[in-house]
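Homework help board

Subject: predicted structure for assignment chain

Our instructor gave us this sequence and asked us to write out the predicted structure in token form, then describe one feature. I got the tokens but I'm not sure how to describe them. Can anyone check?
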Amino acid sequence: MNIEDFLRIQKRREFFRSFSGVFGGAAVAELLGAATEAGPLAPKKPHFPAKAKNVIFFFQGGGPSHIDLYDPKPALRKWHGQPLPASMTKDLNFVFVKPDAKVLGSERVFKPHGQSGIEFSDYIPHIAANADDICLIRSMHTDAFNHHPGQALLFSGTTQFGRPTAGAWVSYGLGSESQDMPAFVVLSSGAGASGGSTNWASGFLPSTYAGTVFRNSGEPILYLPNPPGVTRETQRARLDLIRKLNEERQYDTGDAAIASRVHSYELAFRMQSAAPEFLDFSQESPKLLEDYGVNKEPTHPYAVNCLLARRMVERGVRFVMLSHASWDDHQELNRKLKKNCDITDRPIGALIRDLKSRGLLDSTLLVWAGEFGRTPMGQLERIDEDPGRDHHPNCFSIWAAGGGVKGGQVIGKTDDIGLRVAEDPVHIHDLQATMLHCLGLEHTRLTYRHMGRDFRLTDVGGKVVRQMLA
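My token output:
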């Protein structure tokens, strides 16, 4: 841009500013204010009629063991204590174990559940009780064998950091039906996932679409309440002044990000009243609180998050992530796996039933997933420790239920020891494409232009897994 172009732009801006001041500044401000109130999170129509309106994503960070929870492998007992032939492992990547590590047979007991007869581990009886609503995929595979890249791929479609994540893409594509809450909410428990906030970042999308982290006790969001002595009226007057200054700045610069900033301030103001109500369970029945495990340990933190998730989708929150870590069981597999299952299994089972009883399951897509699975070979770090399992991207299990998903079925198959996919492979990009499809979004059309090219959640791959669909 040369100096003549710059001066011409400034004159044009001054003209429109004068126009708004002389011929209808109040009307123009009102129109801009209305646009800001609707904001970037105003509800948008999907590409085609959708089955699901909301998503609850159970993220089990660290890589839960598929062969101890969802994919029974009795042949492992036959191989127990023996190394696998080099021909079976020569092209696989492992983090800690050697290719000649000894096989670790699973001690879990699997039983069929529901009319569908899907087999689940004895560690997850409450999830298993909902077998007929669950679509279990045993043939997932991914491209990353370390946690942070694997989590980045699961949520952003690439191992490169800095891209928008799934919740941000969904919020960008559909907006929100909630006026008082963010479109994308994160509820965290456990040790914290390796990817941290990058799992719910907006990347190069406007920050409005990033996940907002809620706490499940105390203040839902730190620093959200006004400090002592600051009334709601004072806060409103302050925001009105900040808004006026921001709108003036937007006239001068044409910076679209300023509208997002104004929208964020206004949303935070509305949340000051709405957010505390979410943690008030006084209107929930004692029986329901007991079913979730809200008032007992070790389920309490995760149970609160599951109940909050239901309350949020009831109020129009578009995407809720429940992040629980860590399932990274390199040693003491049986003890650590049981601990995490004891925390999460009962609340998840209760949430499925609760959504179904309220007529919300048909419109709420549930997804349970980690970033990868675990090896059939055992890992023993010290001679006096119980063994665990290493990272395994070549095959693992996830499940989905609810909005747009056909329950009571198993998709895909792994080999006799859970080392490789044997039938119907499903890549992470396929899962992402199917999630978006359930929400009425065509994954190749949900794009955002950045640095001269159109980006999307599924990167350059992905296909809808039609067998998953109801």
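Reply (TA_rk): Your tokens look well-formed. For the description, you could write something like this. Confidence is low (pLDDT under 50) at residues 15-36. That's the kind of observation they're looking for.
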